[in-house]
Amino acid sequence: xxxxxxxxxxxxxxxxxxxxxxxxxxxxxxxxxxxxxxxxxxxxxxxxxxxxxxxxxxxxxxxxxxxxxxxxxxxxxxxxxxxxxxxxxxxxxxxxxxxxxxxxxxxxxxxxxxxxxxxxxxxxxxxxxxxxxxxxxxxxxxxxxxxxxxxxxxxxxxxxxxxxxxxxxxxxxxxxxxxxxxxxxxxxxxxxxxxxxxxxxxxxxxxxxxxxxxxxxxxxxxxxxxxxxxxxxxxxxxxxxxxxxxxxxxxxxxxxxxxxxxxxxxxxxxxxxxxxxxxxxxxxxxxxxxxxxxxxxxxxxxxxxxxxxxxxxxxxxxxxxxxxxxxxxxxxxxxxxxxxxxxxxxxxxxxxxxxxxxxxxxxxxxxxxxxxxxxxxxxxxxxxxxxxxxxxxxxxxxxxxxxxxxxxxxxxxxxxxxxxxxxxxxxxxxxxxxxxxx
Length: 438
What we know:
By secondary structure, this protein is an alpha/beta fold. The chain has helices at 10-14, 20-29, 48-60, 62-69, 78-92, 111-123, 138-147, 163-176, 201-213, 274-287, 293-305, 307-334, 365-373, 409-421, 425-434, and strands spanning 34-35, 106-109, 129-134, 150-157, 160-161, 182-187, 221-225, 251-256, 268-271, 340-342, 350-355, 375-376, 378-379, 396-400. Helix 6 (111-123) packs parallel to helix 7 and helix 6 (111-123) crosses helix 10. The longest helix is centred in the C-terminal third of the chain and has 28 residues, at 307-334.
């Protein structure tokens, strides 16, 4: 008997699996692989004893236990919202009042990913436009596809998104009559996923200035994804883009406790303008009536006691060492490879490897050669969108040093070098020419 087909919504049909799923699954199925693919955090870094102590402390007091185990509010635990606002403003060197902010402008979310999705529900209709860096966070691209939004990109250099190129794109949209469809400019401005690059301080101010100037018939929001801000290993902590929005109108700032604490807490946060907050909370209430309350109580106590700040310092030292080991391995293995270069991130979890003339994409020869050599990376083309000819850059790899141990990182990079040596430019071109993308 034939199965009666499910009638699916247009949004459901637009929504596909993330391209990273295959690479995560491959790593799980093949323990001998050295995985530089998924952007996971080091399991040995989890603050297990600190969290165990806080949970025991909460549960030892019937009043705090009941408060933590009950439903919370849609906007989030007030004590944690206060801590988040203090934390971000201290990092920016300002008082909340200088940015027209109060705890009412803070929302606690189920990871920062939830805010990215709900904000999309608030502002996007199918066909609306988002401007992002090229390359950018490919999971956000998948989210935008679900909303039916169109992604336009701006190239980067060593100082992040190029403001001259952004301004030129905005002028083009204005001339073509499409500026009214532009809703969001998205930036991962600290130690970007996937490149590891950081937006310079002068460009942060310019970004807000451009958003204001081109907000002619509607407000263009800047979505500042600061997920990696606290994983900083060199240089000063630059002020946020939000720091240059003193009236709290243009910038939605998102952060997370997943990278700098523990992803299992699944707790993120956002600071946003009041009218954006109101719309987000209406939709968030339909999603969950509020993110996990116990986790919020745990994070609030970690922050209040200073345990969270101490843990971040330990993480910075650990990941700094991993980064340095990886960069030394690249210098050893790839310095004589023609067309090879890589970023030197001041923080975060990623190095962006460029291999000119080699197809690193999912249908190119390097993926299979790397698997044969026992190493896994993420093809850089996932971070790009197709150009007007339907083409994608195919000479980049995202290399994550989050999970591999310092002992395995040099071996993993050596395996990747052997994989590169096992293929030729001719093989790469031939396979791409005859590839069938599925």
